[in-house]
Amino acid sequence: EFRRVLFRSAARGHGAHLVVNGAAEDEWERLTPPPEVPLEEALVATGFTYGIERRVDMARVFAHLVTRVRDLRRTGSAGLDMCFVASGRIHGYYERDTKPWDRVAGAAVASEVGVAVTVTGDPMGHCLTVVAPPALAARLSSELRSLGVVEDRKSTRLNSSHITISYAVFC
């Protein structure tokens, strides 16, 4: 069910919650870590940048990965994809060249439930974002590296200790 959903995360240590169809606060579902699945069984989301040269390369990666995972999806929202990983609706997410404003809300929700959120490269420019339970994140990152999808700069893990997020999605 992807309709009328609100993902909510407070400061670190306060959990992330799923609110469906305007449920009262005492009916909010606290998100728990999603299960690990093998890469071959993973439903993975991605996105595409606006630059044509990068998009052509991303299509090459997509064409390869579609043979390695259960299936690939595109919702059009990095933050929403990360929330879907956090809630177990999808298993993993990767995308190149997201900006902080594309990912901060979803990354806070995902990291609060124990999902690995890694941004490699320049977080303000050319970067690779991978979000999945830890073992799947490692496998997906390895697969992406084997395809040449590597950003040469440092890797950053989200620290959400001072972030308060309410991320609403109404489809």
Describe the overall structure.
Helix 2 packs parallel to helix 3 (100-112). The protein is α+β, with helices and mostly antiparallel strands and 171 residues long. It has a six-stranded mixed β-sheet with strand order 5-4-6-8-7-9, with helices on both faces. Mean pLDDT is 83; it is low at 158-171. The protein has helices at residues 52-65, 78-86, 100-112, 134-146; strands spanning 5-9, 16-20, 29-30, 43-46, 71-73, 92-96, 116-121, 127-132, 155-157, 165-169. Strand 4, helix 1 and strand 5 (71-73) form a beta-alpha-beta unit. The termini are close together. The chain is globular. 29% of the residues lie in helices and 26% in strands.
Low-confidence stretches: 158-171
Number of DSSP-assigned strands:
10
**What is the beta-strand fraction?**
25-35%
H/E series = EEEEHEHEHEEHEE
Give a short account of the largest sheet.
Answer: 6 strands, mixed
**In which order are the strands of the major sheet placed?**
5-4-6-8-7-9
Q: Which class of secondary structure composition applies to the elements?
A: alpha+beta
Mean pLDDT comes to 83
Distance between the termini: 10 Å
Helix content: 25-40%
**Count of discrete alpha- or pi-helical segments spanning 4 or more residues:** 4
C-alpha Rg (nearest Å): 15 Å
Instruction: Identify the overall geometry.
Output: globular
